[in-house]
Structures are given as structure tokens and as C-alpha cells.
Amino acid sequence: MPGHDTYQRLISLLDTSCVDYDLIDHAPEGTTDAVSALRGHPASEAAKCIVLRVKVDRRTTRHVLAVVPGDRRVDLDAIRTLFAARYVGFSDAETAERLARAVPGTVLPFSFDPELELVADPDVVVRPRLYFNAARLDRSLCMSGADYARTAQPRVEPIAGPHPADGTLA
Hints:
Elements: H1 2-16, E1 22-25, H2 32-39, E2 47-55, E3 61-69, H3 76-82, E4 87-90, H4 93-100, E5 116-120, H5 122-125, E6 130-133, E7 139-143, H6 145-152, E8 155-156
Parallel strand pairs: 3-5, 5-8
Antiparallel strand pairs: 1-7, 2-3, 2-4, 6-7
């Protein structure tokens, strides 16, 4: 089970960092809207985690774990500007799983791989409560955005797109 070690590593990090968190067991689910409903909170309190491929130039590719509020999209143009990149797109599933050490739908807003750069939107780190799947489809974690920022140490940059005008998240 690829997420098991990642789950244990997360819990160990939070425990050794004296972070106050809650674990929430629920039916297996990996999409932000559906799991937010199962956990009983608005999607805006969820951390949506997307692994991106960032081509800085012809020879240099970086991988970025972008973390945005669950009711927003990653602004690929903002990532492109941030890294002065030629191209930004979603990583293929195999690369994302290898770098995030979790299967799709369970990617943590933490990076345990030096090749995966962590960037979080400011709206994520200011949340009083931040929810995310804990490297498992059937268990989530809730902690404060401030504790998240302290333990994950993301680069904090405005990378979330605007709120969708029509209420959709697509």
C-alpha cells in the first residue's frame, strides 16, 4: 500500500512537532467536493493538492506540489511566472504518485521528497481549520493552517485562481 508509509511519516511529523490535529474516518473518497461533504465542511476549508511539471527551460524540469483551497483551481500562469518557466502542466499519474508518495486523491499538502517543491496559496495557511486526506482515501486530517505552515514549511505564494463565478469548480 503506497500511502501507508506516507501516512505514518505524516503522523510522526505532526506528533514530534506537537501539532494539534484530528483524524476523521470516512467512506473512501478522493475528490475534494465529495470528501468535504463526507467530513461535513465547506470545500473552501479543504487543501487541494496538485503535482505539476514545470519546464524552466529545455533541459530543466522541476516538480511542484501546489496547494490551494478546495473551492479554487491552481493558477498555472501564476506558477509559470513564479518559476520563470516556459511551460507548466499537470504531472503524469506515475510521476505524481512517486514524488507525492501517495495515490491520486490522497496527496498530502506536505512534501517528503526533495524533488517535489511545495508551494501553498496564502488562503491555505490562514485557515483556522484545514482538512485533507491523510495519504489514505478513508481517513482525513484536520489541523490549523498556522500549524500546517509551521510543519510543512511551504513557499507561500498567490497561486490559486479566482473563485469560479458560476459556482462550479471545473
